[in-house]
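Good day; I would like, with your permission, to put a structural problem before you. What I wish to show you is a protein chain and, alongside it, a tokenised description of its three-dimensional fold. Thank you for your consideration; the sequence and its tokens are set out here:
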Amino acid sequence: MKVIDRSFWIISLSLYFLFTPVHVYAYHPFYISVTEMALNSKTKSLEISCKMFAEDMEDVLKQNYKTPVDLDNDKMQMQNNKLINDYILKHFSINIDSKPTALKFVGFEKESESVYCYFEVLNVPAIQKITVNNTILQDYKQEQINIMHVIVNGNRKSTKLDYPSNQASFSF
């Protein structure tokens, strides 16, 4: 997959997804996730946030786990944490400098029509190459677009994965 820095379509889609009014999301004509991975040199960890439409996440969890899901329901918080963690671990993995990593689930939060899922990889002093496998929501809609941003020492690289593409590498 070709890595494109600061391309117009990535910025446009990201801005549309982030700033479009809530009423537009009742039906959304595209399926998109935005994952940002940033190396925190102070804590020596890779901090990961995945943003997607909450409705899509709820639907894919219901589809895969055959159980009711309501990300707004505080009484279902433990179940939601377990389902989200399990789903993301099955559909998202990272190799740093050709070594597999262990993703640690930090939590999730629902904000308006979006859900943010947070993970981290501990003990990452530096990154020269990162390879990401990302099939988040590709089992839900084949129209799924997964945008990824990686930031290492202030250097930002981005790419877009269209189904069935699911892997990208970034060198720093």
In short: Residues 8-16+31-171 form a domain with the Alpha-Beta Plaits fold (CATH 3.30.70). The chain has three helices and ten strands.
